[in-house]
């Protein structure tokens, strides 16, 4: 896939990944690859599906989430580390996009239910953990639609633990409106229930069994339309992650989650979980 992408786009992506903490502008990126800003924006969006600005934001938020989950740095240090100058602005934008404050994002259940897709990190929560959480854990909307997704795995891929989430944004920062999963899955159908009516971006993530050749991890994106009644259908082809994929880190935990409350109560036995 990447062989067909213009080298200028890959060069710009490398610049974003290496210098995301700097105040990079569209003009800086276009100048780096010696094209006009207009031509660069069109070329970049065609290759990645998002604008350069949204790609940069995705990288910054991914790194912020990584630092929140894996370090003890305080929020103000993290803000400076990912290219923001104001703690208040970062906190507001993070909370609005993610649905959790930076402090809440450090709760253990966030990491427990994390899905990560980037060139350096691919992670899928164990399906037993998802089953314990229940399908409502990240679904902040409720619906009556049923979606049957046809998944086409890479031709040489081993069976995989597979998760499909439906999102309002092609580069989501918060949990899906609905999701479904299956263990040891090859190409085939996967049903998702309780989907709100509307047009969604379906993101499929598959972690393949080791030792059988083919990719260890594959992903796929597709637009789907779901109706309130009856069965809707969709299809997505999975492939190995590419440099042109904007990094994604989402948690299937939420403040409202019964699973979140159970885990918090287990960590603090003297506190009573609120239903």
Describe it:
Helix content is 33%, strand content 25%. It has 275 residues and is an alpha+beta fold. It has 2 domains: 2-106, Arc Repressor Mutant, subunit A; 114-264, Immunoglobulin-like (Sandwich), CATH 2.60.40. Strands 5-4-7-8 form a 4-stranded antiparallel beta sheet, with no helix packed on it. It is globular, with a radius of gyration of 19 Å.
Element layout with pairings:
Blueprint: H1 7-19, H2 26-32, H3 37-48, H4 52-70, H5 75-81, H6 87-98, H7 108-112, E1 114-117, E2 122-123, H8 127-133, E3 145-152, E4 160-167, E5 178-185, E6 188-195, E7 198-208, E8 217-226, E9 231-237, E10 248-251, H9 258-267
Parallel strand pairs: 3-9
Antiparallel strand pairs: 1-2, 1-10, 3-6, 4-5, 4-7, 7-8
Helix pairs in contact: 2-3
Tell me the helix content: 25-40%
Oligomer: single chain
CATH homologous superfamily assignment of the largest domain: Carboxypeptidase-like, regulatory domain
Distance between the termini: 48 Å
SS summary, helix count: 9
Number of strands: 10
Q: What's the helix-strand series?
A: HHHHHHHEEHEEEEEEEEH
Question: pLDDT average, as an integer?
Answer: 86
CATH architecture descriptor of the largest domain: Sandwich
Strand order of the largest sheet: 5-4-7-8
Q: What is the domain total for the residues?
A: 2
């Amino acid at each position: 896939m990447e062989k067909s992408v213009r080298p200028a786009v890959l060069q710009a992506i490398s610049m974003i990944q290496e210098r995301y903490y700097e105040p990079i502008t569209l003009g800086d990126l276009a100048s780096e690859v010696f094209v006009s800003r207009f031509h660069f924006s069109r070329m970049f969006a065609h290759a990645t599906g998002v604008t350069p600005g949204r790609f940069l934001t995705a990288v910054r938020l991914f790194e912020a989430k990584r630092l929140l989950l894996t370090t003890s740095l305080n929020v103000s240090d993290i803000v400076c580390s990912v290219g923001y100058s104001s703690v208040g602005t970062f906190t507001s934008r993070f909370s609005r996009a993610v649905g959790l404050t930076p402090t809440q994002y450090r709760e253990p259940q966030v990491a427990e239910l994390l899905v990560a897709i980037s060139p350096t990190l691919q992670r899928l929560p164990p399906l037993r953990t998802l089953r314990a959480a229940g399908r409502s854990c990240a679904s902040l909307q409720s619906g009556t639609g049923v979606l049957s997704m046809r998944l086409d795995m890479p031709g040489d891929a081993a069976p995989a633990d597979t998760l499909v989430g439906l999102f309002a944004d092609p580069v989501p920062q918060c949990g899906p409106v609905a999701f479904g999963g299956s263990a040891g899955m090859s190409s085939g159908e996967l049903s998702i229930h309780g989907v709100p009516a509307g047009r969604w971006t379906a993101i499929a993530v598959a972690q393949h069994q080791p030792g059988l050749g083919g990719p260890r991890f594959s992903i796929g994106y597709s637009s789907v339309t779901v109706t309130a009644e009856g069965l809707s259908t969709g299809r997505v082809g999975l492939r190995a992650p590419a440099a042109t994929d904007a990094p994604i880190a989402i948690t299937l935990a939420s403040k409202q989650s019964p699973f979140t409350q159970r885990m918090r109560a287990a960590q603090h036995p003297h506190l009573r979980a609120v239903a």
